Amino acid sequence: MDPLEVIANLNKAFPYFQPVFSADEHTIMGYEILGRYQSDQGIISLGPFFLDEDIPDEYRIEADNYILSQALEKSLNEGISTSFFVNRDANLLMADRGQSLLELLLRFCSKGLDLERIVLEISEKTFRGDFEQLFHLIQYYKTYGIKIAIDNIGGDSDQWERLAKVSPDIMKVDLQHLRKEAGNTAFHNILYSLSMLARKIGSTLLFENIELDYQLHFAWKNGGRYYQGFYLQEPSADFLKKEILREKLKTKCQEYIEHEKRHLKAVHGLAQLLQRETNEHINQLKKQMNDLDSLIISLSKFVGDKFFRLYICDGNGFQLTENLIRKDSRWAALDGFKGKNWSWRPYFLENIMRMQNKNAGLLSDSYSDIETGEMIRTFSYPLGENHYLFMDLAYDFLYDQDGIHY
Ligand code: CA
After folding, report:
1. Residue 36 pairs with which residues in a beta bridge?
2. Are 367 and 388 in contact (CB under 8 A)?
3. Entry's InterPro entries (predicted)?
4. I need a surface site. Which of 20, 199, 225, 292 has the fewest CB within 10 A?
């Protein structure tokens, strides 16, 4: 594409609309406005034009605003009352301190546009200016009721700091690289943390580039409220019926719910099995309660290869035994653990309280073991007298359990 051709023929540029679907209503909640150009070879995307830094800022701003004007005009003419996602590169936005965009929006405001339906979608990864100034501009836009989304969110920690500061209404996460379950543990973990951050700062997650059922399922499971991508709907020149995918999304959602419930049931079933078995074993070992190290050695003879690590702590997290470790089906004590404290670990004290209140054991979520790096779970069990037994389940055992190994 020749940028000069675009600049000389701006009347051949026009908006495309890609719908964004909401998980709570299964309807279209808004459209991302995209730039297209009618070339001699057909319709082409203006994405590369907007990213091309060799093209002077003012031309790109002009084209951006031209397309936005057409989009808003069309939405007013057709009485469309959804949200609109307006893309702006942070460098371009700051080139005129956001003036031309705000003027344009205010002009449409007087024609009936509700500014609360505008989501300013900022790409700030390549921003070279002063972040404080960008931050102030964002705050200023927010005073008009304009919503803020941050585009292209990834695992980079500098960006997370900025996210926490801006607390955008929406975080847009690209699922393009999430093609299948295997080999994506790092990405899964980052997204899990991102969903925690979003919850803390009151942002909503939007997952984009959803092209496969797997990605939609993933988005649903990872706290995504908004979805966008070819698997749902391609961008087009026209607005669509809000309910266009209601039935499909409802059916998908029900599938995911069933899947998740089967998984939760399997986890619950395993927790109950471990509770029953541990009760039985501990009953048989009652006489050894005052020698905790020998208690876990005797216990290890009962538990087979379900577990690979056993130890006992008090209610404040101080370890009262050594670690008993299974290696190649032989159990052995590993010294140096007695007296260590684990109260700093996430959920530790909370779990002690839960065990006290229920007077029953707990099966943890799956997490990566500090020493082996394998995904494991821990079964913890109240022994009475402020003693708590911790039993780490072996990866191989968990992997063989139906519906558990994720
Ligand atoms: Ca975008």
Report:
1. 14, 45
2. no
3. Cyclic-di-GMP_PDE-like, EAL_dom, EAL_sf, Sensor-like_sf, YkuI_C
4. 199
Between CA 130 and CA 103 the distance in angstroms is: 23
Q: How far is the CA of 20 from the centre of ligand 1 (A)?
A: 11
Class of domain 3-231: alpha beta
Residue 295 phi, psi (nearest 5) = -60, -45
> From the CA of 173, how far away is ligand 1's center (Å)?
10
If you measure from the C-alpha of residue 121 to the centroid of ligand 1, how many angstroms do you get, rounded to a whole number? 6
| Residue 343 β-bridge partners | none
Using alpha carbons, select from 221, 146, 225 the residue that is nearest to residue 191.
Answer: 221
State the angle between helix axes of 246-284 and 213-221 in degrees (0 to 180), rounded to the nearest 10: 60
Q: How far apart are CA 151 and CA 382, in angstroms?
A: 47
Q: What is the mean pLDDT of residues 168-191?
A: 80
In DSSP notation, 284-335 reads HTGGGTT-HHHHHHHHHHHHTTSEEEEEEEETTSBB-SPEEEEETTEEEEE-
Cα 249 to ligand 1 centre (Å) = 23
Q: CA–CA separation, 209 vs 32, rounded Å? A: 12
Cα-to-centroid distance, 34 and ligand 1 (Å):
8
Between CA 66 and CA 123 the distance in angstroms is 19
CATH architecture label of 260-399: 2-Layer Sandwich (3.30)
Query: Near ion ligand 1, which residues have CB within 5 Å?
Result: 87, 151
Q: Are 68 and 19 in contact (CB under 8 A)?
A: no
What is the Å distance from ligand 1's center to 123 Cα? 8
- 66-112 residue pLDDT tens: 999 999 999 999 999 999 999 999 999 999 999 999 999 999 999 99
Centre of ligand 1 to C-alpha 50, Å, is 12
3-231 and 260-399 agree in CATH topology? no
**CA 87 to ligand 1 center in whole angstroms:** 6
Question: Domain-by-domain residue ranges, the chain?
Answer: 3-231, 260-399
Quote the ligand 1 centre to 283 CA distance (angstroms): 61
Residue 11 tokens read as 């009347």
This prediction's pTM: 0.87
Alpha carbon distance 333, 325 (integer Å): 6
CA of 151 to the centre of ligand 1 (A): 6
- Tell me the CA–centroid distance for residue 112 and ligand 1, in Å: 25
Residue 190 clears pLDDT 60, i.e. is over it:
yes
Rounded to the nearest whole angstrom, what is the distance from the C-alpha of residue 35 to the centroid of ligand 1? 11
